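Fold these two proteins, one after the other.
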Amino acid sequence: MSSLLELLAPAKNADFGIEAITHGADAVYIGGPAFGARANAGNGIADIERLAAHARRFHAKVFVTLNTILRDDELEEARRLAWQFYEAGADALIVQDMGLLELDLPPIQLHASTQTDIRTPEKARFLQDVGFSQIVLARELTLQEIAKIDEGLRVGADGTPATLEFFVHGALCVAYSGQCYISHAHTGRSANRGECSQACRLPYTLEDEAGRIVAHDKHLLSMKDNDQSANLRALIEAGIRSFKIEGRLKDLSYVKNITAHYRTLLDEFLNASPGYRRASSGRCSYTFTPRPEKTFNRGATDYFVNERKPDIGAFDTPKFSGELIGEVSRIGPDWFEAETSAPLHNGDGLSYYDSHRELVGLRVNRADGARLFPNEMPDDLAVGTELYRNRDQEFERALEKKSAERRIGLHLQLSETPDGFALTLTDEDGITASAALPHAHEVSKNADRALAGLRENLGKLGSTIFAAKEISLDLSQPWFLPASAVNGLRRDAIAALEAARAAACERLPRRIAVGCPQSGIPATQGGAAPTYPENELSYLANVLNSAARAFYAKHGVSVIAEAYETDSEKGEVSLMITRHCLRYSYNLCPKEVKGLRPDPMTLVNGKEKLTLRFDCKKCEMHVIGKLKKGRQISITPVAH
């Protein structure tokens, strides 16, 4: 089992990705020009190439998202993009559409996107066997379920099992990823195509089967944000090796803060656990203390990792309310005073719940002790109103500056040669490089000062990515060398080491599928390709093109329905399947309260009504609905 632990951070663009690596990421994931599951976070090939070149210096990785479902007329463009990503230096493609596996792809690793909805050992093993090197598990899994999947990948496997990846921080989709169709049904914008309209963040009224109101105007499908800070050791023991931070649309302060937070936690674990190693090179130092609560979040939950819990929803608001910091104590004409647990500053952002329980915000233009002058004095602020700080101006300003350094430890050894001197560098990965300096052996007039000067000039690595951990002088006597000569020798050696590190940073090969002649691994079905765990697929399989249809047919599936995005399902279907259960949230769970039945309930938003049906055996809630009339249709049917 791999001992490498990978911190995987989001990159909205190349600059964000570079900062993520500087703040401790072992790998970053980024979208290309098209077909990433965040339509508004695309990047050009040159940007990916620039990011990959920076990542290689630290032996970090760049994963590119190619994780939407594709129409037939998009397959060739996707294939061309895959080659361009590979040629730009990307290390892996994150994939949802199985049709891509039928194309002429470059020899690049494939990672199964969270959109592939991996919840069972059987599906995880199938994806491993058809060639995926890393698989992103569903966010809803418990530790026990993760451990079973890990065991299923390892037992009977010939070779290295696929790496298990798991989201540890950020926004939570309430539905199983890849299993939400509300956006397409209501707006024509498909979540599986990177265009989710986020109906889950809207307010709803919940009615029981008799029409009685259970909850009024609440954000009932909005989850708190994922935070697995306390569960990293347990996740490692369950088999997780890649720890993923959500947020390709988040701002830079979020990326810096959250990456530094998890880097700090993982390093604490690594320092106490010699059997594990980090997946890239270098150690980070920060000019700030990471504080996850300071950047955008909807509250924190560890979701289902430690089994089902109450209070996982952000029902009051899908916005960032911030930290509770105090309450209003006095109100003036254009100011108010507040009793707070910490001082407030000019530029701080505050929020509070108004009389309608809506979250509203204001900006502190000037803070004069406890007296605050907002940008606009609200009418409904009252004495006793609780105040939250959702922007800490001092914290944000610290993150706007250079806020981290990442350095690779070096051992420097200066030795004499018959015609001069040589400097040998060995980095923390054991990579070595040398440079020679022809120079006369000149006896020093002051031995102590000569040796101190050599050490000082050799250790001047401030403009590089390296830090001197040990300097050895293998000299027969303290020779005199001018500072300019030592600096030139050091620069030449650093350049040689950078080249050696680049040469040593090889991309891992594509995993060969079981049953392929190249693999040397016997097929599971008498020479045939691995068999998919089911022989019939509904619209939930998201098959939108002929290549995906051919893939599943080749792997034993006999009935393959078209993707929901083809609009073939005209009646009511499950538009969302989720482990979140509103019966449980409101103490109406038949498993918890004797005598209750799992009768349907209704979500109401204006004129929109959605039926809730409850599968108590699986502990799942289905949100039922159908295609809305008049919405724009942008998907063509799959070819048969």
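Now the second one:
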Amino acid sequence: MPKLDKPKILVVNDDANSLFALTSLLAQWAEQESYEVLAARSGQDALRQVLMHDFAVILLDVNMPGMDGFETAAAIHARARSADIPIIFITAFLADELDRLKAYQHGAVDFLFTPVIPQILYAKISVFVALAMKNEELKKQARQLSQRTTELTATNQRLTREIEERQTVERQNHAKDEFLAMLGHELRNPLSAISSAASLIGLPGVSLEGVQRAKKIIQRQSQHLGRIVDDLLDLSRAMSGKILLNRVPLDLAALVATSLETYRATGRSTDYELEQDLDPGWVDGDSTRLEQITSNLLDNALKYTQPGGRIEVRTWTENEDVVLSVRDTGVGIPAELLPQVFDVFVQGSSTLDRSQGGLGIGLSLVRRLSELHGGSIEADSKGPNRGSTFTLRLPRIEHPVAAAPAAPARAEHGKPRVLLIEDNDDGREMMTMMLGGYGYDVAAAADGLLGLEAAVSYQPDLALVDIGLPGIDGYEVARRLRADPATRDIKLIALTGYGLAEDLRRVMEAGFDRHLVKPVDIDQLMEVIDSSAQVPVKQ
């Protein structure tokens, strides 16, 4: 324990001899009782000492010129810090009851009469010195206790934060584990259907109708797998800020109308009462990403609304915003889940998408794409079975005046000669058969070096080149083809599983004309091949 400061005793007397006698007497016991003795010759001097020090006891002469003992005592006790200092009055006159009363009223604790009897003085000051030392010890213990309490409070707060952070991490890990388990389930379902359909095609005695149905199943489930992969990649790109928007002025109402027409044409909204009220509103946006937002909101409404329910889609302008609202009469959203509907990797039991199948990331992607456009998305629901409303707000722009588009030229030519460079045997074989079935003259190569040789000997109009090739990759294939005068004019289309903006940049820098992300829809591939080969083909 730290060493305590010695208690101090103040002796106040205007008579020099009396002051010396008292201080000398007290000094005899100072070492034994461990205290210090200070002296003052007047009331004013005593007040100065009290301002500088704390005292265990004050021995105060009553009869002093100027400020007497009673006035000095009153001034000492008027100050908050010194109000509790015990004062012993010293007087040479026998005090009557009135004097004693006056002294006690001014804070005196006792009287001593001169000549002072040493034993009595010692007994009295010993009590106050011991009391002062005890009080000082208690104060220091209280300070230490307060400091310890502060440290414990800080430690407790830190531990509480660590516990909360650990619980948050555990919840996130649990949610991710559930998400991965669910992802495995979502991937296995279409893979199982594809595997069964492929096996069915190879069975003897299968009818032509059965083969056709199996093919449609394979095509449909392959598209479903592609959408799952696209959703995962899009969300990853959006969360990391790697989506680059191709922004142009567009009418949100027209874009939404096109999406709704697609839903009607494909029969996806047949069992629902689908209403629309679309007022024009122009925004600066990426049409593909805004269609993605619209589709996700419509899919969400269809998923959680029973057949026969109503879905209302509206667009309008409000101040500086263009607003899209999708309202349904479906299952609604519980109040405790409402703030989390746009979160990814939340608790599995709390996520709407997970109770009905799907990855549960569509609304997360909607929020991120909205933010990338400088907008916002909100969800509202009155509770379970009372429907829900999702409201998108995007910054409004003025209606641009655009020049009339030129009619696209349609070249008259035959089918282009195609070279396919693909290292995956199954993929190369199926792509070759498919292109051949559409009437294209196709040559194939299994790696980059063989592809370069085939390009020289075969002289194709167009080459489909996989990027991840053994030996030399697709980038190097494109660079060498462009460097050779015999092959520099071949149209080059990159086929890759990588779809980030950085991948597109590398593809174009290597010399490719187009960039397609696997799996490629056959109709899209045919369109790209035909549009890329708008030159006279080799006969």
